[in-house]
Amino acid sequence: MTKLELVCPAGTPAALRAAVDAGADTVYLGFRDATNARNFPGLNFSRKELAAGLDYAHTHGSKVLLAVNTFPKAGEPLPWHQAIDDAAHLGVDAVIIADIGLADYAARKHPDLRRHLSVQAAASSAAAVNFYAREFGIKRVVLPRVLTVPEIAQLTAQIDVETEVFVFGGLCVMTEGRCSLSAYATGQSPNSCGVCSPASHVRYLERGSVLSSKLGAFTIDEFADGEPAGYPTLCKGRFQALERTSYLFEEPASLNIAAMLPELAAAGVSALKIEGRQRSKAYVAQVVRSFRSAVDALDDGSGADLSALQALSEGGRSTSGGFRKAWQ
Amino acid sequence: MKMTRTELTLGPVLYNWSPERWRDYYFEIADEAPVDNVCVGEVVCSKRAPFFEPVLADVLERLEGAGKRIIHAAPILIMDARDTALARALTSGGCLYVEANDLAEVADLKGRPFAVGPFVNAYNEGTVAYLARQGATRICLPAELPIESIDRIAKSSTIPVEVQVFGRIPLAISARCYHARAHGLHKSGCQYVCGLDEDGMVVRTVDGVPFLTLNGTQTQSYTCLNLTHQLARLQAIGISAFRLNPQAVDMVAVSQLFRDVTDNKITPEEAMAGLTELWTESPFSNGFLMGQEGVKYIHAAE
Predict the structure, then answer these.
(1) What 3-state DSSP class applies to B170?
(2) CB-CB: which of A74, A104, A181 is closest to B171?
(3) Are the beta carbons of B103 and A73 separated by less than 8 Å?
């Protein structure tokens, strides 16, 4: 069994250095525009910053992946094509793509540029993965967070490309790349604009002792006096159905499947992905260090201390999400 | 410019209606609805599919007899063996005209004529051109696309382009069943509670504002898409078919209104008045088409 590759987020040049220093095998990042799915203000890389980041990572033996994983706007493919061209010219180790048209462009224009399939492409079956591999020479697929570990094992047995799975951080409960919930409430499509539940549409309102968090016109959650108020990510809010108020879709918890690394390795997974390009460099350093030691411990058969990760989860709460059947 | 007649398509029934209701609905559509294309098939949850098996042959025969073009709609999300089997039953054999809603299905259908459904992420002309090269002969675009994108795609597309113009808007699909979860159940022991809500289960915000609708593993809008006032514009930019998503109302009457307004037999105002009488569950919306919040209804500036 080959050692699991640790793929880590870099929202800024400082986070890239922190991730590399903490032992990331690979960092992933995006340009500062709508071409990637973490298009947040103050985040991401200019061309010049990417060149410097590539230099730093390669000097320290780490790889760099560029996410170009939103869906190009009709009639305006240029920013996306430019991102792919620049990735090739700057020498990134792979691009992460979701759109079929863009995959087609990359495969024809830059056949030697390694291509990974983004989670946003939602390739959840062997037939879909093999299609992308055959048609566009995809070398690795980032799996949607809808598959259980046994399903992942079955999938890896039927495909010839590497698989990468999310192990820590934010958790989409809907199939990634196939969700218009945020666009319905805000008019900003995550698939096109690269941002879900955008901060520009978030408001906090105080009514007496109750604090409500709103996304667009809709209240996503309410917090009693003293209750810690979370960010109104649409699918992590409290809603009413059948006369009951509950976290109808999912609790505001983070994904953490550090304890399942042996199962993932046995299922044939090649790489572990940590979510969080919007996170601070201190957070990134801490999570990467913990996973570095967990992967090394798995490799040499010793035990790893994973307790530090719990404190880094959203509200201190974590879930194994769709990786366990019971979640469904 | 000579305009060809705009087709009407009935999308697949997205809800878990009883097999009798499901059959009667299709019989009525076959006998009375002025639509050209009818999608048949369980696309949301493969657990539901066996219930429709016993009445499927009768439904297909009736539709065929009525001269409707049958489009076999394939599942949106393929995760396990059951989903794969449901998709393969349609895509293998090569004799059915299938609407792919996942790339796994596109892969299986490649090289022969097929339709592309609204759940395939076709956001731009490059992707549509690629799908057409694989054999796609028609495509229904994703519901969240603004008219500017639809315009660009329609202009360059070599295959007929369709858009949804009526019905609750499918917004998301998941491995988790929210209908079951709302009832305190898991998907594996769901007791098919999604069957209790023929137009989906309404979700409200904590302060009581209706917001979304649950339909098993699918989440839909609370509002009902209604592009009656945008039909002429869509026709003008080259859209060749309008899709109506079935709700638990008189869909024959809904189809007739869309047929008449599309044929300029009635005005959009008249069609709107008729639809307002037929659909009383929730407000209408058209925000996605206007590049705004999908929930909104934007009154076109005259």
Answers:
(1) strand
(2) A181
(3) no
Angle at which helices B125-134 and A100-109 pack, to 10 degrees? 80
Identify whether residues A155 and A191 lie together within a single domain: no
What integer pLDDT is reported at residue B1 of this predicted model? 43
Question: Taking the domains of chain B in order of start, what are their residue ranges?
Answer: 7-168+225-283
Give the pLDDT confidence of B22-31 residue by residue, as tens digits: 999 999 999 9
Residue A222 domain-assigned (yes or no): yes
Interchain CB distance below 8 Å, A101 and B125: yes
Percent of chain B with pLDDT over 90: 96
Domain closes at, from A212, A229, A246: A246
For residue A125, the chain B residues in CB contact (below 8 A) are: 78-79, 83-84, 102, 104
A chain contacts of residue B153, beta-carbon cutoff 8 Å: 74
From the list A161, B108, A197, the residue with the least C-alpha distance to A189 is: A197
Best residue in B205, B289, B295 for a mutation probing chain A (most A CBs within 10 Å):
B205
CATH of the domain at A133: 3.20.20.70
* Cα distances (angstroms) measured from residue A277 to each of A38, A40, A63, A144, A160: 7, 9, 16, 18, 29
A257 in the same domain as A194: no
Nearest residue in A to B197, CA atom: A242
Residues A106 and A28 in one domain: yes
Query: Which of A104, A146, A249 is opposite residue B79, by nearest beta carbon?
Result: A146
B interface test, pick of A68, A176, A178, A212 with most B CB neighbours within 10 Å:
A178
Q: What pLDDT sits at residue B162?
A: 98
Minimum CA–CA partner of A218 in chain B: B205
Q: Which domain holds residue A223?
A: 181-246
Burial state string for B120-153 with b = 16 or more CB within 10 A and e = fewer than 16: bbbbbbbbbbbbbebebebbbbbbbbbbebbbbb
Contact B77, B102 (CB under 8 A): yes
**Owner of token pair 């609204």:** B118
Residues on chain B touching A255 (C-beta within 8 angstroms): none
Q: Which CATH class is domain B7-168+225-283?
A: alpha beta
List of chain B residues whose C-beta atoms are within 8 Å of the C-beta of residue A185: 293-295
Furthest-apart CA atoms within chain A: distance in Å: 61
Q: Which of A125, A200, A320 should we substitute to test contact with B (largest number of B Cβ atoms within 10 Å)?
A: A125
ipTM metric:
0.97
Strand partners, B168: B224
Sign of CA dihedral A116, A120, A126, A129: negative
Contact A178 B173 (CB under 8 A): yes
Q: Is the dihedral of CA A182, A188, A192, A194 positive or negative?
A: negative
User: Percent of chain A beyond pLDDT 70?
Assistant: 99
